[in-house]
Structures are given as C-alpha cells and as structure tokens.
Amino acid sequence: MDNFDVYKWKQNSKQSSKNNSEFDVYEWNKNRYLNEGFNDREVKGRLSDIKYDFLTSYFNGETFHTPNSDDSSRQINGEGDWVDWKQDTLDRYGNVDLRLDNTAVWYDQIKVLDNKFQSDKEGYTKGKAAFLDKERKMGRTSGLDEVKNTIKFIKENNPEFTTEEIAAELKEIKELGSQLNEKLCKKGEAYRKRRMAAGEKSSAYLSGRAVKVCKGQMSGKKKKK
C-alpha cells in the first residue's frame, strides 16, 4: 500500500520551496496524490493538518464516521461536525496522528493513533463487557443480547444511519416483531433459524429483523468486510 504522510509532506514542502524555486518535488507529489488515484492510498497525518475538504475528497463524499473513545462513532455530515469532533479530540488528547483508509469498513476508515485514546476505548469496552457478564450471571440479561444483535444488524445494513435513526429503527423492529401474527416468508424464516442455530434466543427483536428481511428492507446475509 502506498502511504501518504500529510504532516511530513507539509514540513518538507516548506523546506523544498526555499531550496528549489524551479521544481518543487513535494508540490508535484501533492498533485500526484490528490489528482491521480489518491483514493486508493492509506493516509496518515496530524489531526491539526487534516481539513474537512481534504476528507471529502479522500472519502469521495461529505459523510463519514469518526471514532470516539467510548467505543462509539460519530457520523460527520458537514464541516461543523468535523470541527466539533476535531476540537474535542484536540482538547482531550492533543494533536494526535490519524490513519485514514477508504478501503476499510465504515467504522474503521479513521483511526486515532494515540495510546491514551486507545487505552480509554479499551477500558470502556472491557467495562461494558464486564457489566453484561455480571447481568447474565445474575439472570438479568432481559433482552440485552437481543438489542446488541439488532443494533449490529441495523449498522451492517445502514452504515450511514445516525444514532437517532438507529434508535428509531430499533423501536420499529421491536414493534414489528411484537405484532407478528402470521407465518414468515421463506427468507425471513431461514434468517431466524440461522440466528437461533447460532445461539440467539427467540425474541421480538429477532422476529422483527426477520420481517425486515421478508420485506426486502434489509439483508439477512452477513456483510463481507
């Protein structure tokens, strides 16, 4: 993979412009990366150096996702969203390095290369797992796994959804499953059986997802990364 380091390019381009007024190799490289197959390359750069217009060119669109240290992600819908996330990250973790990869799955396209950020994220993930394990041991799972599986299902089928849209979809799926009073179609029933064979318990969430599969609104097949 051909890596492009934004920070090093910026630093070297300043020096090059001083030493060579006729031909600037770094300016030439910038044009090569930005205009000739740029979207096929992994990019690494300092957070302060990465601008919104740079990202929209790289991701070929105005919408993408940034990671949070609580193991969630934020959907960026415009420059204001990017500025907010960027400033919050700068305030909490400093001028960290980012690695961009537009060939990765949506939630892995931007990674924060900072030990404290990753430590906070891992700590939150472990804490969440410990809480769920405790609830299971106490017999208080009460739909936690079903909700988790359904949120994953929604994200796989609708990676562009905001948190609010995911919550609305989750509610609709549960209602569809609760109101189900007829036989599922073949695809929906096959999906339901596959999930139960994998260890998932019967629930309104599972039935609602199967209804979505029947309606063709979502795929019952696992997405390939």
What topology emerges from the helices and strands here?
Layout (H helix, E strand, L loop, with lengths): L3 E2 H14 L5 H11 L7 E4 L5 H8 L4 E4 L5 E4 L2 H15 L3 E4 L9 E4 L1 H23 L6 H14 L5 H16 L7 H12 L6 H12 L10
Parallel strand pairs: 1-2
Antiparallel strand pairs: 2-5, 3-4, 5-6
In short:
With 225 residues, the protein is of the alpha+beta class. The protein is 56% helix and 10% strand. The model is unreliable at 16-23 (pLDDT under 50).
Plain-language structure description:
With 225 residues, this protein is α+β, with helices and mostly antiparallel strands. The chain has two domains: 4-117, no CATH class; 143-215, no CATH class. It has helices at residues 6-19, 25-35, 52-59, 79-93, 115-137, 144-157, 163-178, 186-197, 204-215; strands at 4-5, 43-46, 64-67, 73-76, 97-100, 110-113. The strands form two sheets. A four-stranded mixed sheet has the order 1-2-5-6. A two-stranded antiparallel ribbon has the order 3-4. Strand 3 and strand 4 form a beta hairpin. Helix 8 (186-197) packs antiparallel against helix 9. The model is unreliable at 16-23 (pLDDT under 50).
